[in-house]
Amino acid sequence: MFFTYDNYKNIQKPYVYLAYPNKKTICALKVYELNTKLSFNAISSASFKIYRYENGMELPYWDKIKMGLYIEIRYISWFYISDIGLDKDENGNEYMEIDAVSLESILCQTLLTSFGSLGIDTDDQGGLDRYCLYNIYDQDHSIMHIFKQKNPAWTIGYIDPEISRQYRAFDIDSITSYEMLTDKVAEIYECLFQFNVYDMSVSIHKLENIGHTTSIFLSDRNLIKSVSITSNDSDIKTMFNVSGGNDSRTNTTLGIADVNPSGNNTIVNLGYYENQMSPELVAKLAEYSAAYEASTQNYIQAIAKLETLYEELEILKNKILDDHDSTNWTLFGLAELEEKQAKYWNNMSIYMSTDKSKYEQNYNLHESVSAEISRRKSQINLKENQIENQIKTAKSYIINIQDFLGNKLYNEMSFFIREQDFQDDSFVATTEMTNNEILEMQK
Q: Is 153 exposed, middle or buried (0-12, 13-18, 19+ CB in 10 A)?
């Protein structure tokens, strides 16, 4: 139940109005047993009773009250009537029991469709559409612009500048507008949606930026009379096995090993159990944490250089020109050069006894491309050696926690491992993405 205060600190029951969906007021309502349940991050609700007769006279607006009309509880919120029940009291006076929900619940009636299945093989996202939360320059892949297109009565309000602009993948055929925002998007971007039903705007806040400290405190001397706190050991997790969606480069699950100096796809935080550990384990884990942080940037840079070397190796082996008739052999990969070598050798056998000029032409081409093949194989051998050395460099930054702690402390640490898989299919790697984009996503 909500009340307001007048200038003399007297409690005032809020005014309630009936309105059309355009918010034009029909009439004021005299309500009884007004109850409201207001939520910051969920649909609010209200309920009340209205009697057909007041002082022996029928209310003129009785027949106007219908499902779907709007209710304003002045200075609190707007609702729409979701349910009406008719009954009589012990004196035979008819009354309505009215339930209403806040206006954002209307968004449960509109559907957003085909997220993740609109892409085509030739588009710039590699056949799988990915979406950002808000991008005025890419509205076809901006979730909030897609939302507004389907719900034009709503406007985009404040968007926390700290919210990630990175693109994510969704695999959803059909979902309500409200669930898309408050469930799927809120979880992926770790944000909270606030619906202002007065100006019909949607604002987005980063979770960690919600709320502020006040001087209000609760104790058993003011409001708290009793409190019950429970905990469950199964809720405590100290190790996550992290994975994303598909990695199209290898057709495997995307992991974080490429950016994790532990060399695997797990992250560990044992802080909850620190006061149960031996002083030796606590000290050694602190050392490990410092060493891990120090190695992170070096490891990521080493992996990025390794990716570049792999790209260069791929070019040396398989680069193909659009101009297949070019004789600038330095521009071709080994596979293409070997095809041309075989072609010229075959032509030589054809023209050997029939056309001396064409035989010599193909002979010269065969010799020049063969020379380039020798150079290309040498370049490939050198690049493979560079890759092997770079792998060794990257591995030198890996800090294996078992080796770091030693068997005795590692065995003690094992008592505090509470493991769980953590997968987010919205993180996908496509062949159209750059290595830097994928590394950033893995981080």
A: exposed
269 CB burial (10 A radius; 0-12, 13-18, 19+) = exposed
> How far does Cα 283 stand from its chain's mean position?
36
Q: What is the mean pLDDT of residues 97-120?
A: 77
* Digit-coded pLDDT (tens) for 355-403: 889 999 999 999 999 999 999 999 999 999 998 898 889 888 888 888 8
| Mean local confidence (pLDDT), 208-213 | 70
Question: Would residue 320 be called left, alpha or beta, if left means φ above 0 and alpha means ψ between -120 and 50 degrees?
Answer: beta
Farthest-apart Cα atoms in the chain, separation? 122
Reading the block at residue 121, the tokens are 């093989």
Q: Range with the lowest mean pLDDT among 37-41, 133-137, 225-229, 314-318?
A: 225-229
Distances (CA, A) of 384 to 100, 310, 319: 69, 9, 17
In this structure, the strands spanning 94-102 and 130-131 are unpaired
**d(Cα 365, Cα 341) in Å, to the nearest integer?**
8
pLDDT higher at 242 or 209: 242
Residues 186-205 pLDDT 10s = 888 888 999 999 999 999 98
Structure tokens, 327: 């004789």
What does the alpha-carbon distance between residue 208 and residue 190 come to, in Å, rounded to a whole number?
9
pLDDT in tens, 139-163: 888 899 889 888 888 999 998 887 8
Report d(CA 62, CA 90) in Å as an integer: 20
CA gap 320, 327 in Å, rounded: 13
Tokens of 293: 């942080």
Query: Is it the case that residue 308 has pLDDT exceeding 80?
Result: yes
Confidence of residue 98 (pLDDT cuts 50, 70, 90): very high
Record the tokens describing residue 59, joined without a space.
Answer: 């209310």
Q: What sign does the dihedral 185-117-443-436 (CA atoms) show?
A: negative
- CA angle (270 as vertex; 234, 257 as ends), nearest 5: 100
Distances, alpha carbon 239 to alpha carbons 224, 269, 316, 414, in Å: 36, 7, 41, 11
The answer to whether 272 touches 239, Cβ cutoff 8 Å, is no
- In sequence order, what DSSP letters do the residues of 88-156 get, joined into one string? E-TT--EEEEEEEEEGGGGGGGSEEEEETS---TTSTTTTS-EEBS--TT-GGGBHHHHHHHH-TT-EE
